[in-house]
Design brief:
Shape: flat
Distance between the termini: 129 Å
Number of helices: 13
Order of helices and strands: HHHHEEEEEEEHHHHHHEHEEEEEEHH
Number of strands: 14
Helix content: 40-55%
Strand order of the largest sheet: 4-3-2-1-7-6-5
Strand content: 5-15%
Oligomer: single chain
Length: about 700
């Protein structure tokens, strides 16, 4: 390398203008070095940061590929080939991630450390020495000025000595500072070359080591694996291209076939009206009343299902029942200056719906379809089939699920262990259950002609009607609780659990042996609600304690219903819809003939119905154990009382024996002839004392026999 220019340290004491000029050149060179290395440091820092990000991204990619087999895609099945392939890729990428991590460490040690040291140590030292040199130079100039102003007429040895000492100190400090400053500037010429070459050398060595490490890890086996994967990707791409071509052709065919259907009101000569439809689906505008004389129109998707007209809003999971079109009337009407309107009126005339179609063809097809469905149901089906179809449609409307068949089957009681009814064909319509099975399930589970209560009516209030009239119990709460008699009855209960429930209905049932009675009651109550359009439900708080079940009004905190826990015979939740649950109660007297009745209550809860049933079961177990403990305690108390009584008798017997001994001693003393008592008087036994002696002997014999 060529010789390096240096500042003359020998001329630092003289501090000539030429030396100062040469120092200025070196200072400009130092500023240029600092600016250049600052830019170089930023560039290398970006390389290092990018390498760290690449290492982290590679590691994250490997982690995601390993977790692919645990990922569940809604449309993707269990592809074992893809999972195994991605597992192999994750191994390769994991090894590459390790290589990148090693490269990041080498770059930090061999590239970033030297240039960082040069920036923070060497260049910073030059800046500090420059500042110190400037301060020392200023102090030296000030000391020389004071020395030059010494008066020759009035010489003061003390002042002169101080000024000379000051000049000596400042000149020495300046000389030492400038020598160190010059030496650092001279060394900077060497350090800049080292700081420039050493990071580049470390960078190249780290890259070479990285490539060697990659060539060692990526063996021939991985090359064959990557070749096979490339072939598979090409096969998938060819399959995708062929599928895309077929899809494009299908789209073109659909465009050509659907072009006449784009018009909202097509020409009836080109597209004739089909009047033989028995099913119809499409968007219609329905008129909804918003006030006394105001209406709004809403666009919904309508379709026919069995003998019912259903509607479904966009985004809804399932449709809801609009109207039963059994034996209904339908006709075209004029409504609010809108075209293609028609009106459907129920067979009883109490419900009507006004709908608007998009075209005259669509309107006529809807009218013809509804007429065909109504005529087919009315003429070809018997009343039992109609009732079964209505029940099925009602259940579908109340409890939406992905499949109408699944919804219908979920509300039927379990038929396990019962003989399956014979069917006339291989496929049967929904709701075509045999009459024998239907009558069997109704007669054995639910009392025939049983009314369904949709509102909460307290049976307890009716039981206490006579008490309220007689006035013996005072004022009776209309919800079934006497005023203040049991207000604190559940304060000491171990179990207190509160659930938010909505009352669906109740009805009298027969059997209480299995949960089928609850399932059948749920089915009948939900079907009746849908048929009669009863959607209002009373919300209450169900309080479960170890003594009773209470239905409490959430607003007034008044008890609506109260049942002793001992009257709960059965509690179960629905098999499919876990929010539905019910319990069967055994009551002591009916409403008319005072006969024992069994009533099933059905509720809907925000929580899981199984949790509520488990809570009721836990309360019954706690009550059973409490009753056993109470009986055991009572028995122990009776035994303790018997022992106390026996002990009292023994104490009394001992006292009697003691008295007898005393009397015997006195009798023996008095039986001696002519011998007086201690006080000089004779002792005479009365008849009462002799009777007590006889009674004592009898008590002693009795106590010995009992012992």
């Amino acid at each position: 390398m060529p010789a390096i220019d240096k500042l003359p340290i020998e001329e630092t004491l003289e501090d000539s203008p030429q030396t100062r000029s040469l120092l200025g050149v070196f200072e400009e060179d130092t500023a240029a070095i600092s600016s250049y290395f600052s830019q170089l440091f930023k560039a290398m820092q970006r390389i290092y940061d990018a390498q760290n990000e690449l290492s982290a991204a590679t590691h994250l990619t490997s982690k995601l590929l390993k977790g692919y087999e645990k990922q569940r895609f809604p449309l993707g099945g269990d592809d074992e080939v893809m999972s195994s392939t991605l597992q192999q890729f994750s191994k390769v990428i994991d090894e590459l991630s390790s290589c990148h991590a090693v490269l990041s460490t080498q770059l930090a040690d061999a590239m970033m450390f030297p240039i960082t040291q040069f920036q923070e140590r060497d260049l910073r030292e030059i800046v500090i020495l420059k500042e110190v040199f400037q301060i020392a130079s200023d102090d030296h100039d000030a000391a020389i000025n004071r020395y030059s102003r010494l008066s020759k007429r009035k010489e003061n040895e003390k002042v002169k000595n101080e000024v000379m000492e000051d000049v000596y100190t400042s000149r020495k400090k300046q000389h030492e500072t400038i020598m160190h400053y010059f030496a650092s500037l001279n060394m900077l010429q060497y350090k800049k070359k080292i700081a420039l070459l050493e990071p580049l050398l470390g960078y190249m060595q780290a890259q070479i080591s990285f490539f060697k490490l990659g060539s060692e890890n990526l063996t021939q086996q991985w090359e064959e694996f990557l070749t096979n994967i490339g072939t598979s990707v090409q096969n998938v791409r060819r399959e995708m291209d062929s599928d895309a071509e077929a899809t494009d052709q299908t789209i073109q065919d659909m465009k050509a076939a659907s072009d006449p259907l784009y018009m909202p009101d097509p020409d009836p000569n080109k597209i004739p009206v089909n009047r033989n439809l028995t099913r119809k689906a499409g968007y219609l505008n329905t008129r909804n009343k918003t006030g006394l004389v105001s209406f709004t129109w809403e666009r919904q998707y309508f379709f026919t299902q069995g003998g019912n007209l259903m509607s479904q809003s966009r985004g809804a999971v399932a449709g809801g029942l609009v109207m039963d079109i059994d034996n209904c009337s339908v006709m075209a009407v004029d409504c609010e200056d809108r075209r293609f309107c028609f009106q459907i009126t129920a067979f009883d005339g109490k419900k009507a719906a006004i709908l608007q179609a998009e075209s005259r063809k669509d309107c006529e097809e809807w009218i013809a379809t509804i007429n065909n469905i109504s005529k087919r149901i009315y003429l070809s089906e018997n009343p039992e089939e109609i009732a079964a179809r209505v029940n099925q449609s009602a259940l579908e409307a109340v409890t939406p699920s992905p499949s109408f068949q699944q919804r219908h089957e979920s509300f039927r009681p379990s038929t396990q262990g019962r003989p399956k009814p014979g069917r006339s064909g291989s496929q049967c319509s929904v709701g075509s259950e045999s009459p024998a099975l239907s009558s069997l399930s109704l007669d054995s589970l639910v009392a025939p002609d049983t009314p369904i209560q949709f509102d909460i009516i307290s049976p307890v209030s009716e039981e206490h009607t006579s008490q309220a009239k007689s006035g013996a119990q005072g004022r009776t709460n209309p919800f079934g609780e006497s005023g203040g008699s049991k207000s604190e009855e559940s304060e000491d209960s171990i179990l207190h659990q509160l659930f938010i429930v909505r009352f669906l209905g109740s009805m009298e049932v027969k059997a209480t042996e299995s949960a089928d009675v609850i399932y059948e009651t749920m089915r009948q109550i939900l079907a009746a609600r849908a048929i009669h359009n009863i959607f209002r439900m009373t919300e209450s708080h169900l309080l479960v304690t170890c003594e009773c079940l209470k239905l409490i009004d959430p607003q007034t905190q008044v008890t609506r219903l109260r049942f002793p826990l001992s009257s709960v015979a059965l509690c179960a939740s629905h098999r499919e819809n876990k929010r539905l649950f019910g319990f069967v109660l055994k009551m002591t007297g009916g409403r008319v003939d005072e006969r024992p009745v069994t009533v099933c209550y059905v509720f809907e809860s925000n929580n899981d119905g199984e949790k509520i049933c488990d809570s009721v079961g836990l309360a019954k177990q706690i009550a059973l154990h409490s009753e056993r403990d109470r009986k055991a305690t009572q028995k122990r108390r009776e035994l303790d009382k018997a022992k106390e009584k026996q002990q009292e008798q023994l104490d009394k017997q001992k006292q009697i024996e003691k008295d007898l001994e005393e009397q015997s001693r006195l009798i023996a003393a008095s039986s001696r002839p002519g011998q007086p008592a201690a006080d000089g008087q004779f002792l005479v036994l009365s008849n009462s004392q002799s009777e007590d002696s006889d009674a004592g002997e009898e008590g002693q014999k009795k106590g010995e026999s009992e012992a």
